[in-house]
Write a structure and sequence with these properties.
The complex is a heterodimer of chains A (about 550) and B (about 280). Chain A is α/β, with parallel strands linked by helices and about 550 residues long. Helices cover about 40% and strands about 15% of the residues of chain A. Chain A has 23 helices and 18 strands. With about 280 residues, chain B is α+β, with helices and mostly antiparallel strands. In chain B, α3 packs antiparallel against α4 (about 120-125). The chains are: A alpha/beta (about 550), B alpha+beta (about 280). Chain A: This is NADH-quinone oxidoreductase subunit J/K.
């Protein structure tokens, strides 16, 4: 699929390529929120000051996060014609050594994690850095990286998220350009349907079908919304996707808007993500400037623009109807469905709501075709999924693997097992409303159906690892306490039921529980799951139900039998 | 409401004319397409417990007591009958063992949430639930007397029908209460007591004293009452009177407008009698 981009954009693309592969050494610092939190900002400032003082020919840019949280702050160095070298656990006091090494044409080998000779951004633009520094391991030789498949995170930590030129240079917006110029909206929609892409927010509803339902509704106005209200404890995939590659999301939304037939999109993002909000706003402004958002995109008849709506700190506002209420300025409380958003969403108009990561999947599907995409992942679960692998695991970080990968592979092969050599006991998938899965079920593949079958959910992609020291009853209490605090209070099973679940768990943990309490706990949890109004209440008892099933002994040892 | 496809049952019935047949507990009943199933059940005298449903308000689905089993081929699904719309051949079961089990658990939760409510006690007793395993809420200072079950009927009637928006939900989760802004007096209150009449658990306390109506549960909001120039009784909140009289066209004549309903009918009756005796 050859595309002839407008001259203005081609110029920016070329300028981006010069920035990514300059004829002077390029130093980058991982500055997503995570990198900044462990000292990245200070490192960046120190390097900037030193470079200014010594005035050498060096380029210094911020990037997003490459996902290896444990090894942050991560700094990369690329000499012209040499591989891109990742330096890990850099501190401010290493900055002078780094600069000295770079100025003498090399890299500080003691800080080097791995090298990248060539990188495929999957949008038809491979970047070849070069060869050399053979004593530094290759990227693929690092187990944490080598066993992943980066589709969504293909640009994260490599390009500057605040520079549209670099995004264009790695093939960004070429899918949107080609679609708007050469494809019918229906063809775009069919490609997404054929790709088998399912909603990455947790429920796994086929994205193409949701688009079609919205498209086929008759209405003078329609909306598309990106759900960026990521609120699960321990989950930060969407944050990194927006902070490291905001244009990928925008491109996905342009394609969705074109397929569905709407001119207005919103990103509903939680206020707790200030950097993501800033980078998205910046990216939207850059895209507007180049005519990629706004009236007559790429000179076509198609117009579309995106606004940002920030949340006010309620977990339940990730639920579709509560989210719309929040955007409209009402209290974020869910209402019963139907009507679904596709019938009556924002301002009563048909609305398509998809998660950040769902939108991010679209450009690569349109670029490479549905068949290419379907070859990644498993039956009925195509594509990759980004997980945040956290908790008592040796290698904490963002992990992107094809759907259908086993838990064992994620936790042991990529995560290298328990932290500090401790034995892994369980993982919890799917955020606060997921279930706790015991070690003996780690052959379970991570896909929507398999996780449901053992009482957990995919959710948005949090994987919390628990080691042998973990008290599973206490874990259940923690998650119930979270859900109780985040319940909106509209329906009784969630409002009162979770409160009493918490009271029961506290009583059991205090050693004052009885065998009857365990029965009550179980039947109460079942009622909450069966009768709650929205997904929050329906899934909130999962941690209790799964720990009761898989770790019953721990409960029994706490109560007087 | 901004949500224009959500409308009350009455409105929907006016729009819909299509007759359909629904099946409740194995028996066929006539219904209008789009009508809520709880409404059909109420009309047909089939018992489905409910606390947050009111035909003239938009469906809310919060009390979870009216859940029924919707049968669809070999699958069944639990849904609230107050939000389930009638369509031809729709089959529901109102009292399967599963439904009853969850209903009893919810009633236990209600007994703990509103321990002072006789309505809840007797409703629970009908399902064999006479005590609760859960901690009872006891708040000595609760302006709603530990009887509120947060069904939202008062909030909705005040917003949707009266258009006053005096009360709302405050806080969230288990800390949710219904109250006025900052739990203080709210001068927007018309004193119409629509909230009192829809409250299923009789939780809202009011009292009339002299020329004032006191909405005790709503931050002790005081509403001025209108005095009847004839009998001297205080009979109608001033703000409500203004709102209602503004809607009557042509307006009532000044001398009857001021009177209380009793004196007004007496006045009219006397006029009629004297007019007819004059004719004679």
């Amino acid at each position: 699929m050859k595309t002839e981009l407008p001259v203005g954009i081609i110029n920016r693309e070329n300028s981006g390529l010069k920035k990514l592969k300059p004829d002077i050494p390029r130093i980058t610092v991982g500055l997503a929120t995570c990198g900044a939190a462990v000292g990245g900002t200070a490192i960046y400032e120190r390097l900037r000051e030193s470079i200014q003082k010594r005035n050498p020919d060096l380029s210094l840019v911020p990037t997003g996060c490459i996902g290896y949280c444990r090894e942050e702050p991560i700094v990369t160095v690329a000499h012209p014609g040499k591989p891109l070298v990742l330096l890990n656990r850099v501190s401010v006091k290493d900055c002078d050594d780094i600069l000295n090494a770079v100025l003498s044409g090399t890299v500080p080998h003691d800080k080097a994690l791995c090298r990248i000779e060539e990188w495929d951004h999957l949008m038809g633009h491979n970047i070849t850095y070069g060869r050399g520094f053979d004593e530094i391991p290759l990227y693929d030789e690092i187990p944490f990286f080598g066993q992943q498949k980066k589709v969504i995170l293909r640009d994260a930590g490599i390009i500057n998220p605040e520079d549209i030129d670099e995004f264009l240079a790695v093939g960004g917006y070429s899918a949107a350009y080609n679609a708007l110029r050469n494809m019918e909206p229906d063809t775009v929609l069919e490609e997404v349907e054929k790709s088998g892409l399912r909603g990455r927010g947790g429920a796994g509803f086929p994205a193409g079908l949701k688009w079609r339902i919205t498209k086929e509704k008759k209405s003078d106005k329609k909306y598309i919304i990106c759900n960026a209200d990521e609120g699960d404890p321990g989950a930060y995939m969407n944050r990194n996707e927006m902070e490291s590659d905001p244009h990928m999301l925008i491109e996905g939304m342009i394609l969705g808007a074109y397929a569905i037939g709407t001119d207005e999109g919103l990103i509903y993002i939680r206020a707790e993500y200030p950097l993501a909000i800033r980078r998205l706003k910046h990216a939207i402004a850059e895209a507007r400037e180049l005519g990629i958002l706004g009236e007559n995109i790429f000179g076509t008849d198609f117009s579309f623009d995106i606004q940002i709506a920030t949340g006010a700190g309620a977990f339940v506002c990730g639920e579709s109807t509560a989210l719309v209420a929040s955007i409209e300025g009402r209290t974020g409380r869910p209402h019963p469905r139907p009507p679904r958003l596709t019938d009556s969403g924002l301002w009563g108009k048909p609305t398509d709501l998809n998660n950040v990561e769902t939108w991010c999947n679209v450009p690569v599907i349109i670029k490479n075709g549905s068949e290419w995409y379907r070859n990644i992942g498993a039956e009925k679960n195509s594509g990759t999924k980004v997980f945040s692998l956290v908790g008592d695991v040796e290698k904490v970080g963002l992990v992107e693997v094809p759907l259908g990968t086993t838990l064992k592979r994620i936790v042991f092969d990529i995560g290298n097992g328990g932290a500090d050599g401790k034995a892994v006991k369980a993982v919890q998938t799917g955020g606060p409303s997921g279930g706790c899965i015991p070690l003996r079920l780690f052959d379970t593949t991570v896909d929507f159906e398999s996780l449901n079958a053992i009482g957990s959910i995919m959710g948005s992609g949090g994987i919390v690892v628990m080691d042998e020291d973990t008290n599973m009853v206490d874990i259940a209490r923690y998650f119930i306490s979270f859900a109780t605090g985040e319940s909106c209070g509209k329906c009784i099973p969630c409002r009162e039921g979770l409160k009493h679940t918490l009271i029961l768990l506290n009583r059991i943990l205090a050693g004052k529980g009885t065998a009857e309490d365990l029965d009550t706990l179980k039947s109460l949890s079942e009622t909450i799951a069966a009768t709650s109004l929205c997904g929050l209440g329906q899934t909130a008892p999962n941690p209790v139900l799964t720990t009761l099933e898989y770790f019953r002994g721990e409960y029994d040892s706490l109560v007087k039998l | 409401m901004t949500d224009n496809t959500v409308c009350s049952t009455e409105e929907l019935l006016k729009k819909s004319s299509e007759d359909v047949t629904v099946i409740i507990n194995g028996r066929e009943y006539p219904a209008k397409k789009g009508e809520v199933m709880l409404g059909v059940a109420i009309r047909e005298g089939i018992e489905i417990p409910h606390l947050c449903y009111e035909a003239s308000l938009s469906p809310y689905g919060a009390c979870r007591l009216c859940m029924v089993e919707k049968r669809c081929r070999d699958r069944s699904e639990m849904v609230t009958s107050c939000t389930l719309r009638a369509e031809d051949g729709l089959e529901v079961v109102t009292d399967s063992p599963e439904i009853l089990r969850h209903r009893r658990m919810i009633l236990e939760l209600y007994l703990a949430e509103a321990p002072k409510s006789e309505v809840i006690k007797s409703l629970a007793a009908r399902y064999g639930v006479t005590k609760t395993r859960f901690f009872k809420k006891t708040d000595k200072d609760d302006p709603l007397g530990n009887k509120c079950i947060l069904c939202g009927l008062c909030v909705r009637v005040c917003n949707e029908i009266i258009g006053a928006g005096v009360i709302s939900f405050v806080n969230r989760g288990p800390y949710t209460v219904v109250s006025t802004p900052f739990s203080g007096e709210n001068s927007d209150c018309l004193g119409c007591k629509a909230c009192v009449s829809v409250c299923p658990t009789h939780a809202i306390v009011t009292g009339d004293s002299g020329d004032e109506r006191i909405m005790k549960s709503w931050g002790e909001t005081k509403v001025k009452m209108r005095e009847c120039p004839v009998c001297g009784n205080y009979y109608l909140p001033d703000l409500l009177a203004e709102k209602v009289y503004a809607k009557i066209n042509p307006p009532l004549s000044k001398n009857i407008q001021e009177m209380c309903p009793k004196c007004r009918s007496r006045n009219i009756a006397i006029k009629e009698i004297s007019a007819s005796s004059n004719r004679r």
